[in-house]
Structure formats: structure tokens, C-alpha cells
Amino acid sequence: MQNSEAPPTPPTPPTPDIARREGPERRRETLERLDRERDIWLSTSHPRHGPHQVPLWFWWDGRALWMCTGANSATARNALQEPRVRLALPDTADVVLVQGEAECFPARDVPRDAADGFAGKFGWDPRKEEGPFLYLRVTPGTVRAWRGEHELTGRVLMRDGAWVA
């Protein structure tokens, strides 16, 4: 009878030392990423069905994140019932987490500058689509950012809607 155990996994190589960023640098780099990046994970919750998480395109207008989803989607239904949401940029080595409340706008009611900004970034305008769409605006209440364990202290950059770093 042969031993069916897998060989031990080799240890993970150490990660290169990354210099610790102070608050102002973290804030600047976080704002740059919000301006530059395309995708974000949006987490909503339903009172009976629990958490729901989806990746969405987003546009940062300098104060809020704008996303768009089908008006009949679980994401839309959840945000309308429970507006408290969490967002995360997709890089786990350079974490950016945002908490806030989603304000929902049917495509016909979305502020024009927001819809134009979203369409300009992606070359897609949900207002011109046949199906119903819902825009979500999330103004950050809390923002956290860190790269590795050495940056856990000081990771809160915004608290109660005010930048602390």
C-alpha cells in the first residue's frame, strides 16, 4: 500500500521589504488609485439572504464612487433595502477598503455629470441601453489602506467622512 499523502508544501519565499508609507503618502496613492483603476468589489447585504459581492466598473468623481448595475439585480435590490456597503479594490497586496452608504439613482434620474463621467471612462452609457439600470453613488465614510502587516497601524485614512491622514 502506497502512502497517499502529498509531499509537504515548500515554505513561501519572503516578500521583499516594502517601505512603510505615512498617512499623507497613503492618502495620495489611494486617491490616485481611485482615479486610475477600473474595477472594484461591491459588497451588499440582504436581511434574509445575507452578503452579496460583485465586481463592478466604477468612476471616482473626486468625492464619491459611481457604479452602475441592472435595476433588477440582487445588488440593486440589496442597496435599495440596505444602503450600507463596502467596497474593495482588487489588489490584496495593496489594500484599499471603503465603507459608505449607497445612494441609488435610476438611469433617467442620475445627475448628468456623473453619468457622463462614467460613460466617458468606459465608453459605455447605460442611459442608452434598453434594459433598466441603476446607478449607485457611494460617498466614503471610512477609507482604509495598507500594504502588508507593517502598515496595519495607521491604516484608517478617513473616518466619519473626514480625512484623518
Write up this protein.
Keywords: Oxidoreductase. This is Pyridoxamine 5'-phosphate oxidase family protein. InterPro entries: F420H2_bilvrd_red/Heme_oxyg (IPR052019), Pyridox_Oxase_N (IPR011576), Split_barrel_FMN-bd (IPR012349). Pfam families: PNPOx_N. Helix content is 20%, strand content 37%. It is an alpha+beta fold and 165 residues long. The protein has one domain (23-163): Pnp Oxidase, Chain A, CATH 2.30.110.10. Strands 1, 2, 3, 4, 5, 6, 7, 8 and 9 form a nine-stranded antiparallel β-sheet that branches. Strand 3 and strand 4 (65-70) form a beta hairpin. The longest helix is centred in the first third of the chain and has 14 residues, at 23-36.
Give keywords.
20% helix, 165 residues, alpha+beta, 37% strand
> What is the CATH homology-level superfamily?
Electron Transport, Fmn-binding Protein, Chain A
Compute the number of strand runs. Answer: 9
Global geometry? globular
> What's the CATH architecture?
Roll
Largest sheet, described in full? 9 strands, antiparallel
* Class from helix and strand fractions: alpha+beta
**Helix content bin:** 10-25%
Task: Average the pLDDT over all residues and give the rounded result.
Answer: 92
What is the gist of this entry?
Residues 18-32 have a biased composition (Basic and acidic residues). The protein is built from 3 helices and 9 strands; from the N terminus they run H-E-E-E-E-H-E-E-H-E-E-E. By secondary structure, it is α+β, with helices and mostly antiparallel strands.
